[in-house]
Every structure is written in structure tokens, then in C-alpha cells.
Amino acid sequence: MSVRPASVGSFLRSAPPDRLPEVVAEHLRTWFPVSDVELLLSDLTLSSLWPLLDPESPTGGALEQRCFGSQQPIVDNGSRRLLLPLTTWGDRLGVLRIDLTETPTSELRAELTTVADELALGLRAADKDTDRYRQIVRRQRLTMAAELQWDLLPGRSLSGERFQLAGQLEPAYAMYGDHYDWAVTDDRLTLTVLNGDGDGIEAALLTTVAVNAMRNARRSGANIVEQAELASDAVYSRYGGGLHVATLLLEIDLTGGTIEAVDAGSPRALVAHDGDIRAVSLEQQLPLGMFGDSRYETQKFQLEPGDRLLVVSDGVHAAAPGGRSPYGESGLLTALRRTRLQPPTEAVGTVIRALREYHAGSDPDDDAVIVCLDWLRQSA
């Protein structure tokens, strides 16, 4: 009698990068009481789930969306269907839908959850070597600027023992110069939100120079002042002061909640706690690349246990469609209060949808970035 392999991981590692879903489907049908399998990936706007194995089948319904949003397995006992989130380090990819021939026990659910986790990790690694998965999540063609921006992003969400983090760009298919970046190392989270000059591919190229300069400095062990100064020098050497990048750089101590900040332009930060929302007051310095040899200084502010930090570009806080008051003066605060019970992955979508409603059908004048961080450290 054949013995079930201990893990699907070895099969995934030996499979072509574009065939991972088929490998998992075959593994599940062979070794588990499974009649059907479908992999659903989230589109770029995080608003719908699209089938991969059978692209002609329906998109994910209410149960699949609930699984994706809650990041919890869902069992539909009536149909013996099991829905499992596909997530790596908090970055939500989609949902694995499994139809079973028997009611799942807790042991079976645990085994299938492990398969889903291994598939998610494989999908994230394989994404660099095949276009198959990106073709599914794109529901229309990206502009060249948006292509550059999406390739530059670190991911759409990230989580650890002490934090949950998510970001979103709007519009997804025709971005300009707004961007975010993050990295976590040794209990320190570096977060940047940028707003580059101009529009179209020139704005995207400008942002690409700034982001990669900051990454180059960060990966060499530089602090956020050195990151800002290297990026400013790189932008100035390329554009001679004609274009610049408004940037907010934050370095967050995940053990103590202290944040060091370099405020070099228009992105704004707000902190919410128990329903109260306050703007973070920082002394604004020159945008990156405005002058040669620009020098920057850090400022500090403190997060308390349970605080939510929201960072937005000027496409959010300064949006004033049809001569209305800026969205940041009232609409943003209202939207942020609605997110009180939502995790950051859902909160950024809530704020984006409220921003769309604020434009009341008119086309935005600027793209928008929203990044949401929850600091989870419990008070002593």
C-alpha cells in the first residue's frame, strides 16, 4: 500500500514554475478524499477572486471573499467544501477551494491547511519566473507606468508577531508617481511613502530612481537620514533639480513603538487609538532631489500599544474634486473611523472606496497611496 508523502513541498520544488496549481491539484486528488480543486487569485484591486485552473468558471463568491478577508479557513458542511487562504508572511494571494467527498475532520483540515501554505509560498517564489499568475490577476492592460510601479512594490501586506501592515495604490491600472516601500529586519520596520513629480512613465521612472537609491542605502546598513540623502543626490544628479520626490521615511522600533521620521514632502501620517485620531505633526524638509547635497534630520514620535498608523499621499489628503474641501479635512477621518474593527488589509480598501465615493464619479487628478500599520505589542 502506498504511503502518503509527508509534504507536497518536494513536488512543488521540482515542478515548472507555471504548473504549481496542477501539481497541488493532482496531489490532493491522489492522497486525500478530494473531488475537485480550484485556485482563486485576487485581482490588483483586491476586490474579486479569479479562478486559475478553470478560467471559465465563476469568480469567487461570498464565502471565498469571506475567507480571503478574514484569513481564516471556512467549511461549508452542506457542500463539503473547504476554503483555505493562500498567504505568505501576511501577503494575501487568494483562496484554495477544495471539494471533499467526506466531511472534513480537524486533522484533515490541518493537513490541507499545510498544503495551502506550501502552495502560497511556492506561488510567491514562482511569480518571478512565469507570467501565468500575473495574467490572471490583471483584468485589463496596465499602462507602462503602472507596470514599473507594480514591479517595484514590496507586496500588498506584511505581518509579524508585533505588527500588521498593508498598502494599496489607486488607480491600480494607470498609476503615476505615488509609491510605498517597506522592509523588516531585526525588529525594525522601515516604511516609506513617496509622491513623485509629473505623470505617466516619467513620474514612474523618477520614483524608481528614488526607491532604488533608498534600498541601496538601506541594504548597505544606512539609517533613514543616509537613505534620504543618497536618494536626494541620485535624483538631483539625474534631473538637476527640475524634478523631485516628496517622501516620508519612517523607521519603527517594533519592540518599543518609537518612530524616527524624515519628512521630506507631502505624504501625511495620522495615528488612531480607541476612536481618537490625531495628525502627526512633523517639520517638513525639502523634497528629495530639489537641491544638490541636501541634508536631512530625523524627528521622533511614539506609538502606544493598539495604535493604528495611517500614511497617505497627497492624492488622498489633498484630493478636492469639483472644488470640494480636501478629503483629508473630513472625509479621510470619517473613513478611518469606519476601519476601527478591520485589520489593515481590509482598512486600506475601506479608505480607498470612500475616496472613490468622494470623487462622485469624476476622474481623480492624482494617484493615491494608503499604507496602514497596526502595532500589536501588548502593554505590560
UniProtKB/TrEMBL annotation:
The keyword Translocase does not apply. It comes from the Bacteria. InterPro entries: Bact_Sigma-Reg, PPM-type-like_dom_sf, PPM-type_phosphatase-like_dom. Gene3D superfamilies: PPM-type phosphatase domain. Residues 160-375 form the PPM-type phosphatase domain. Keywords: Hydrolase. PANTHER family: STAGE II SPORULATION PROTEIN E, STAGE II SPORULATION PROTEIN E-RELATED. This is Serine/threonine-protein phosphatase. It comes from Paractinoplanes ovalisporus.
